[in-house]
Amino acid sequence: METSRIPGFYKMGVDERRELLTKMESFTEEEKEYLFSKEPLGTDTADKMIENVIGTFPLPLGLGLNFQVNGKDYVVPMAIEEPSVVASASYIAKIVRNAGGFTTEATDRVMIGQIQVVGCPDFEAAKEAVLKEKDSLIEDANASYPSLVARGGGAEDLEVRILNEESDSIYGKMLILHIYINTCDAMGANIINTIAESLAPTVEKLTKGKVYLRILSNYADRCLARASCVIPPHLLESKGYTGEEVRDGVIHAYEFAASDPYRAVTHNKGIMNGIDPIVIATGNDWRAVEAAAHAHAARDGKYGSMTKWSKDEEGNLVGELELPMSVGTVGGSIRVHPIAKIAHKILDVESAQELAQVIVAVGLAQNLGALKALATDGIQKGHMALHSRSVAIAAGATGEMIDIIAERLIDEKEIRVGKAKELVEEYTK
Ligand SMILES: CC(C)(COP(=O)([O-])OP(=O)([O-])OC[C@H]1O[C@@H](n2cnc3c(N)ncnc32)[C@H](O)[C@@H]1OP(=O)([O-])[O-])[C@@H](O)C(=O)NCCC(=O)NCCSC(=O)C[C@@](C)(O)CC(=O)[O-]
Ligand SMILES: NC(=O)C1=CN([C@@H]2O[C@H](COP(=O)(O)OP(=O)(O)OC[C@H]3O[C@@H](n4cnc5c(N)ncnc54)[C@H](OP(=O)(O)O)[C@@H]3O)[C@@H](O)[C@H]2O)C=CC1
């Protein structure tokens, strides 16, 4: 889409938003049917995707607006059940676009396949034997997946480690091969597992040991994406707070997360609030992204903040986020789930590398949204006001009653289900 800046989008009704979206994006009739239908993922398709299917589990799909990354505008599809996340991402993206937008970069998409060998009569000799045959193992790996090589990807390198060298237990000592594979635009789990399994018989011959596990590592530390932003303090100003106060509050909040795992987990949950919804909407494996993100946050041996916030010489707030981002634009369920396909069309990324960069930019925005709120009015004001509609529904409100009850909960500063039930009873008397 030409622009991601659509002021007042949230003030429109759903039908009005859909009409505007169809003017901005050229959907086919089939796409419109899926996107706007009551059953976007048919049970027939669902039944082919997983096992023991009895139905589907819909999530709200919203659009994160105002995003500008490396000079390009992105409308970001976000599938999430939690209120205020989409609003917060859009809010911060609006501030950051006025500061020049997010800057991002990504490494090559190199994923890791692990092969575990146990029971080698001589582990050092086994390691040497594997390393001696490194080139031919890489050739074999590539021969097992020629289509990947044809796309410019494939196995690139191989390393070997001996784990628990001093262990007395027969279960402890093992040889671990890492095979590094460029999976192009696929997340690559199945590709890597296929390659790792294909190498196992040769590895057993070389090592005289027994191969057990042949599987990718989800700690994709050679498949990283980075985002940063630089925000002049005047853009952070909000009611009752100077920009400098907000900036300093955000940096204090970061230092708290960097020093205390109890805070870091919550801080990082706030980052994943932005990341998971786009990973889910684009049909990617969010468990893989979550697992790798938290491992990366503990890479120095202590769990800490995924982001970093600081002040530069001009007094600007500087935000940075680096995460492993093993996502794809093909593979898995991406081309199977009709809404995931449409989400890719809306997002308009050309490669997995580009997708990874947009995702980390959204994570960085989401973190700032939470920290800005926490460092000023507190989280409840913005978040609970938007949560009030869910509270009203949980208390039994329907139709036009939902907004009326939600408004009353906000006015009376008591956003809880018990209070909402009282109001619903009063309303229906
Ligand atoms: C909620 C806001 C944005 C309100 O903030 P506000 O100042 O009332 O917003 P505003 O009315 O000035 O609007 C500014 C922009 O925000 C967006 N916006 C504003 N309202 C809406 C809406 N209804 N729907 C969609 N977009 C909205 C919209 O883009 C709008 O620009 P415009 O389009 O008008 O030019 C703010 O209070 C905020 O960012 N709060 C933080 C919310 C948050 O982080 N939620 C996550 C849940 S809490 C959690 O799980 C994580 C946490 C917090 O524990 C993590 C941690 O501890 O670090
Ligand atoms: N631990 C984990 O995280 C695990 C995750 N998984 C699951 O694996 C799935 C992801 O595996 P993945 O291997 O990505 O998916 P696929 O098995 O679907 O493989 C991707 C396929 O996409 C095709 N392709 C088309 N264009 C490209 C391109 N530009 N770049 C790369 N491939 C292309 C390739 O087929 P061709 O070359 O024939 O055209 C390739 O085989 C996810 O569903 C995940 O949940 C599975 C096991 C473990």
UniProtKB/TrEMBL annotation:
Name under which the protein is recorded: 3-hydroxy-3-methylglutaryl coenzyme A reductase
Major enzyme class: oxidoreductase
Gene3D superfamilies referenced in this protein's UniProt entry, alphabetically: 1.10.8.660, 3-hydroxy-3-methylglutaryl-coenzyme A Reductase, Chain A, domain 2
CDD domains xref list: HMG-CoA_reductase_classII (cd00644)
Pathway as given in its UniProt record: Metabolic intermediate metabolism; (R)-mevalonate degradation; (S)-3-hydroxy-3-methylglutaryl-CoA from (R)-mevalonate: step 1/1
Keyword Transferase included in the entry's annotation: no
Family membership: Belongs to the HMG-CoA reductase family.
Catalytic activity: (R)-mevalonate + 2 NAD(+) + CoA = (3S)-3-hydroxy-3-methylglutaryl-CoA + 2 NADH + 2 H(+)
EC number of the protein: 1.1.1.88
A GO MF term: hydroxymethylglutaryl-CoA reductase (NADH) activity
Nucleus listed as a keyword: no
UniProt-listed InterPro entries: HMG_CoA_Rdtase, HMG_CoA_Rdtase_bac-typ, HMG_CoA_Rdtase_cat_sf, HMG_CoA_Rdtase_CS, HMG_CoA_Rdtase_NAD(P)-bd_sf, HMG_CoA_Rdtase_sub-bd_dom_sf
Keywords assigned by UniProt, alphabetized: NAD, Oxidoreductase
PROSITE patterns: HMG_COA_REDUCTASE_3, HMG_COA_REDUCTASE_4
